[in-house]
Amino acid sequence: MSKIVLEHIDKYYGENRVLKDINLTIEDGDFMTLLGPSGCGKTTTLRVISGLEKPQNGTMTIDGKTMIDAANAFYEEPSKRGLNLVFQSYALWPHMTVFQNVAFGLKIKKLPKKEIEERVMDSLRTMRIDRYRDRYPNELSGGQQQRVAIARAIASSPKLLLLDEPLSNLDARLRIDMRAELKRLHKETGTTIVYVTHDQVEALTMSTKVALFKAGEIAQVATPLEIYTNPVDIETADFVGSPRINLIDGKGIYDGETLKVMSPLGNYTFAKDSLKPGETIPEGQEFDVVIGIRPEVVQVAAREPKDEEGYFEASVYASQPAGSETIVTLEANGTQFLALQVDLRNYEMNQQVFVSMDPARLNVFNKETTRLIRYAEAKIKEDEDE
Amino acid sequence: MGKTKKVIQKGNPWTRLKNQLKDVLLNPFNLMTLIAFVILIVFVVVPLFSLVKESFILDAAAARRAKAAEGSWSVYYWQYLLAGKMAKTMFWTPLVHSLTVSFFACLVAVPLGAILAWLMVRSDIPGKKIISFLIVIAYMTPSWCKAQAWLSIFRNALGGTPGILYWLGWNVPDWVAYGPFAMVCVLALHYYAFTYIMLAGSLGSINSELEEMALIQGASKKTIVMRITLPLVMPAFLSATIMTFSKAIGGYSVASYLGTRVQYHTLSTRLHDQIASGMPGVGYAISILMILISAGLILVNNKVIGTRKSYSTINGKGGRSVDLMLGKWRTPMFVFVCLFLLVALVVPIVSLVIESLQVTPLNGLAADNFTLFNWIGKEENSYALLNWEPGLFRNVKFTSAIWNTVKLGVFGAIISSFMGQVFGYISVRGRGKWYGHMIDQLVFIPYLIPAVAFSAVYVAMFIKPKLGGLIPSLYGTFLLILLISTVKYFPYASKSGTATMIQIAAELEEAASINGAGFFRRFARIIFPLAKNGFMSGFILTFISIAKEFDLISLVVNERNITLSYLTFTYTSLTCYQLAACSSVVMIALISVMYLIAKKAFGADIVKGWS
User: Fold this and answer.
1) CA atoms within 13 A on the CB side of B551
2) Domains of chain A, residue spans
3) Which helix (H) or strand (E) holds A270?
4) What is the 3-state secondary structure (H, E, C) of A116-150?
5) Which helix (H) or strand (E) holds A24?
6) What angle do CA B132, B133, B136 make, to 5 degrees?
7) Nearest C-alpha in A relative to B507
8) DSSP code of B391?
């Protein structure tokens, strides 16, 4: 059991407020990713949870036990919070072997020698580096060092595992391997994981929940699918997803029942029940909107389909076939946008094509508040749904 | 980020206070910082105040002359020094002497050091490795050994037995043998090292890509040197000049070996004489003025150069450095460097060795004039020519001097480098916090104070019992010598401690702390093992510096706790030149061996860590 509740956390460096009223609940067994660009406060939040930083305001409990009570200047020591941390730099002690690195914390706990040996070897085996036990960190590759760092963190069987951009120093191939490794580790151990990254692909592929940080605040906490399908504002929409979401300027008009949107890529009408409650939607007057269209929502056909509605003409600006997928840059009514197609296609430059998009899968943002006002539906194929 | 006003919510004030106190008191880091502060305040700040105070309080003798009560406050000493009948002999002439000698020493030493540094770092001169080692050894040889060597060569018939040139048929005139000319020569041959060390560090850190870029843009070699290289090393160059000047002003040994014989007094010799056998209060006043001159110069230098000092660190890691081809200058330059080493290292050592083997310097290199008596002779075989002293290795004074020197060096270096690591740790972990900044400032103070003035500070503080006997008089004790040596080297030790600690990422400690390691365990298991090499090389460099020190301790050494440097000085004063030469040779040998160990075993590099 390990439920972490952060409430009203403020962190100042001098007069500089780097965390602003952070409220976050991490449920037991979650793989919670703190996502955001550099300097947004995600690492600071992680360090607050670990106890390496002391926030000036706020409280934190783990399983109901108070770990931080800033008002009373109470901060539990890092080692008494039942957690462990993997640093971005790995922070392996260069003068100790792999075995000694992993055994360090267990020795401090004064476990019997035999148990230490067993637990160290267990975690080395879990990370598949048991044969390097007598090497020094500088005799290992970056990927192996990373595994040692994780092995060291899990050796003490922490209830909570914190990872600070652990994959950022690895090359692209190793990163994909390590992602799988971490996901498996999460499933096998059932440990609650808090994971910091600026890489949205990592966030989307690995986590059960994502907390999106923006300038010291949490912009959105949701499942990866939700963050991807319905990002809370334009900035988030732009940050999440690759290739980037198409953000098309348009005009909206809301009569209290339906939202009509006019754009260079067609006019759409959305029913009231798909609108997001509590957002600013001016009634009875035209206002600026931004339509968010994920590239995979854009359907492209070389010839106009006969019995289907909603197609409009566009011309191919450039096409980037990448083996498994094709990214097509299209142009219609003076507006450029991207389409993602999940197979290999070939288009000529300036070729005329026919384009449609499923209105149910479009986001609409209020341009003035920059906030999402209309939910899109996620499309998940049945057999892949868990 | 946030520009909003900082709001901090406070809960129950008592719980809050209790938790805050617990946090502060139970954290050994805070305790360590507190102890470091106390040490620095007690041993740096308080003695300085004490020095100022003592320069205004009349002692018994001065009170009689000033016709005032003993212990009363008075500007008597200051008036005597600056405006009295003796002011010219006591202060103004020595001031002019000090400034003259320092200026000319700078004029020779700085260009010399600069050329050597450039040749060693940027050119393709042959034999770099061995030459740069020898250049450093030449510096490691204490200045008083060089003064000693100067005497053994140039001494004329003015006093005692003349030197080797006299035997060769040249009665060297006084102005060559003693006084300002001799002092400038010896100082320059010693203090070139500041420029060499600082510039070598600065030049070594300039990425040659910066120069190559200029080359690609079409700049000529001359333009590159003038517009790119020189401006980049200018800050180091200025610092070196100031350091040389300030060190030369503060130097006592060279002035006392070479100047006093012809009544050429400098501030440091006057200071020394006043404290040792005149009016200590006047000596204290001279110390204060010397500190002001020296500290003023260094502070102005830091202010002027300010942030520009950091040029050299910008590319600290970057790129390789390409040696400049000397072409047809290669041989002449190599000859120049060899000549330098000959003058600065070989001739002094050889002349000292020769002298140590002579029956009497009067008979020079005559075949029957060589003997091992000075080294191993028995007392019963000694005679008037040898001043009735047994050979060095059978001499109780020598045994006791070497024992004291080693003891002083070992204890001083252990304490100093340990404290250096602690100061470095506080400074690095306290970057951007008030206590880190404060430690940096306090630790830097001894650096501003010329050596002989520094010992005056301690004399003023510890000559009488203080606080009703709570602090006993330490005058004449080994403890006082140790204290002076240790504290004077705090700035250097702390610099090398900082350099070591900065390489140990805070994350290594944080990782240990999350795994449950407390402060002491972190220090013992993480910090210390990683800092070991830095500590050891710092230790040996400090050992060498303390062991060879004369300026710093000449005021406080007495018969009971004599050191090698003091023994040499005593022998010279007694005109036992051969024995003085013997003990100089021992000193140089000891230093060379220690430096070799530091370099080979712990990778000590004086250019990188000790400027």
Assistant:
1) 25
2) 4-235, 238-379
3) strand A266-271
4) HHHHHHHHHHHCCCHHHCCCCHHHCCHHHHHHHHH
5) strand A16-26
6) 85
7) A91
8) P
CA dihedral B541, B543, B549, B553 (to 10 degrees): 140
Nearest CA in chain B to A55: B8
Pick the CATH number of A4-235 from 3.90.550.10, 3.40.50.1370, 3.30.43.10, 3.40.50.300: 3.40.50.300
Q: Tens digits of per-residue pLDDT, A2-52? A: 899 999 999 998 888 999 999 999 999 999 999 998 889 999 999 999 999
Whether the Cβ atoms of residue B263 and residue B180 lie closer than 8 Å to each other: no
CB distance A259 to A269 below 8 Å: yes
Positions of chain A with pLDDT lower than 70, given as ranges: 1, 380-386
Q: What is the largest CA-CA distance in chain A?
A: 76
Residue B107 in contact with partner chain A when CB distance is under 8 A: no
**CB pair distance less than 8 Å for A18 and B1:** yes
At B79, list the tokens: 């008036």
- By CB atoms closer than 10 A (0-12, 13-18, 19+), residue B347 is middle
pTM of the model: 0.81
Please write the tens of the pLDDT for every residue from B349-376: 998 898 888 877 777 777 777 787 788 7
Output the 3-class SS for A282-324.
Answer: CCCCCEEEEEEECHHHEEEECCCCCCCCCCEEEEEEEEEECCC
Looking at the complex, report in whole angstroms how far the Cα of residue B508 sits from the nearest Cα belonging to chain A: 5
Whether residue B112 contacts residue B192, with contact meaning beta carbons closer than 8 Å, is answered with: yes
Which amino acid is present at B393? F
* Contacts with A70 from chain B: Cβ below 8 Å: 8-9
DSSP H or E stretch at residue B343: none
Tell me if ipTM is over 0.85.
no
Spatial distance between the Cα atoms of B3 and B1, rounded to a whole number of angstroms: 6
**Identical topology for domains A4-235 and A238-379:** no
Strands A74-75 and A335-341: unpaired
